[in-house]
Amino acid sequence: MKQFLILSLALCLSAAVFSSCNNEDNTPEAPSISFKDNTDGTFYAKAGFPLTITPQVENGDGAQYSWTLGGQQVGTSATYTFQSDETGTYALTLTVKTAGGEATQQLSVTVEPVDVHYRPATQNSLAACNAVYEYTPAPGQFINEPQSGFKNENTPEAACAYALERMGKSAYVSLGGFGGYLIVGFDHSIYNEKGADFSIAGNSFSGSSEPGIVYVMQDENGNGKPDDTWYELKGSEYGKPETLKDYSVTYYKPQSAGTDIRWEDNEGNEGMVYYLPGFHKQDTYYPAWITADSYTLSGTRLATNSDWEEGTGWVNKAYDWGYADNFSPKDGTGSNADGTGARVNNFEIDNAVKADGTPAGLRHIDFVKIQTGVHFTTESIGELSTEVLDVKDLHAGK
After folding, report:
1. Backbone phi, then psi, for 204, in 5-degree steps?
2. Please, what is the end-to-end C-alpha distance for the chain in angstroms?
3. How many CB atoms within 10 Å of residue 42?
4. One domain, residues 142 and 89
5. Tell me: the pLDDT tens digits for 102-149?
6. Structural domains counted in the chain
7. What UniProt keywords apply to this chain's record, in alphabetical order (predicted)?
8. 398 sits in which H/E element
């Protein structure tokens, strides 16, 4: 009998402990609120345009939502669309209630005046650029080459059409050596939101980065042309002593086919863009649509980041962040290990700076310029040249 009582007591204790554990395991946790690409709860909107705010709620099963503005409840859905015709800063509160508790998040929405020439995206807007305004590469081994898609383009207009067609197929467009550039536009303005705003696809891979400087512009005068102020997007090398501002290189048209192209820079240096008949046999690497005997390209120059490694050859290392066609672990996505696909770098409009290095404070952009940022060439691999496969607005379609 004593043994039976002891066994019964043990079973009861076990049941009680099991029941207690079950009760603890089944107690729902309190919800928590966060927002993608927004850590401080600050949002921006244009006067008269809607802004949809979508919270990310953890432990939000069966949640009830309450949005209040100025002490008045204005919404009970999981998302809230704010809109005001009046500029200013508005205090918005989100409360989420579940069986596990309650979470409250204070938000602010700053309504800014509509820029006169701002073109808002619509549901039909394209993410990809839809116009090439200028394509002026430096001489390079992929310029004029049939394997790179050229079909004897001999006017600036034909060159721009070539570049747009290539990017439409996610095929590379080479910018040639230092200073070569491409200017693209979109069917809408790209709005500056938290986090990355647009992307540039290149063909970098580990050990092969050919970094391009990125610039942005607003259509300030509203004429639909990239003839206003360019703002450089600062990257990891911005402001370093070895990064040269206002660097320029002049390239000279060769006198005969199949020869090197001479260059001189504004630092008193000179050299050659080497002709490599073993790999690229077109008559000349000097752009066929540039008829002048020479032309000069200017911009920011990054320090050479290439090293010779025994058994490997030249290794073109990546910079930390902030450049196109750059195998960066911080702003790069996708893989291109075989050198045939695309690797994408993401860019933030917030990194745009004025000529003196102060923030440009742009709320939107209309044009993007990519320019080869390194001046480096060897007789074995030729020049380093930034390649561009596409430029896309990361917000379009959201």
Report:
1. -75, 155
2. 73
3. 13
4. no
5. 999 999 999 887 777 899 998 899 999 999 999 999 999 999 999 999
6. 2
7. Signal
8. none
